[in-house]
Amino acid sequence: MDIKEIKEYLPHRYPFLLVDRVLELDLEARHIRAYKNVSVNEPFFNGHFPEHPIMPGVLIIEAMAQAAGLLGFKMMNLRPADGTLYYFVGTDKLRFRQPVVPGDQLQLEAQYLSNRRGIWKFACRATVDGKEACSGEIICAEHKV
């Protein structure tokens, strides 16, 4: 999926759209692989931290949640325009292992785990150059608008 198609499935827009491209989407295996190019021009680097820029952990989590949301939308064959949104509601087993800095390509992976009464759970990972930066389970709630 390119950015144009991603924008059909995610309601986020600049500066909060954190998925640049989907490399692999396997609906049979219920898995997605995408990436976010991390640029020094990101607005959060002005304050986090100007002399030692590091991507905020909460935004790494949000990027993983957006990849998971794309997978959920595609699995349900729905889009926000159909009246459905996925709200990020929590994490389990979350760990940060290394910082993400300007120039990195943040690889995002999400694997569907379960859906019970509109509460979706995904196993997610964010890596840079094959090294894990963050991992955890992302929990989203399906919301009809």
Task: Please give a structural write-up.
28% of the residues are buried. The model has no long low-confidence stretch (mean pLDDT 97). Helix content is 19%, strand content 43%. It has one domain: Hotdog Thioesterase (Thiol Ester Dehydrase, Chain A). By secondary structure, the protein is of the alpha+beta class. The longest helix is centred in the middle third of the chain and has 20 residues, at 57-76. The protein has helices at 3-9, 57-76, and strands at residues 21-26, 31-37, 84-96, 105-116, 119-128, 131-144.
Summary, kept brief:
With 145 residues, the chain is an alpha+beta fold.
Name the assembly state: single chain
CATH topology: Thiol Ester Dehydrase, Chain A
Domain count, please report it.
1
CATH architecture: Roll
Amount of beta strand: 35-45%
At the first level of CATH, the class is Alpha Beta
Q: What gross morphology would you assign?
A: globular
- Main beta sheet: 6 strands, antiparallel
Structural class: alpha+beta
DSSP, total strands: 6
- Overall radius of gyration: 15 Å
**Ends: how far apart?**
25 Å
The topology string of helices and strands comes to HEEHEEEE
Record the strand order, biggest sheet: 1-2-4-5-6-3
CATH homologous superfamily (4th level) name: Hotdog Thioesterase
Helix content: 10-25%
Arithmetic mean of pLDDT: 97
Please, how many helices? 2
- Unreliable runs, pLDDT <50, ≥5 residues? none
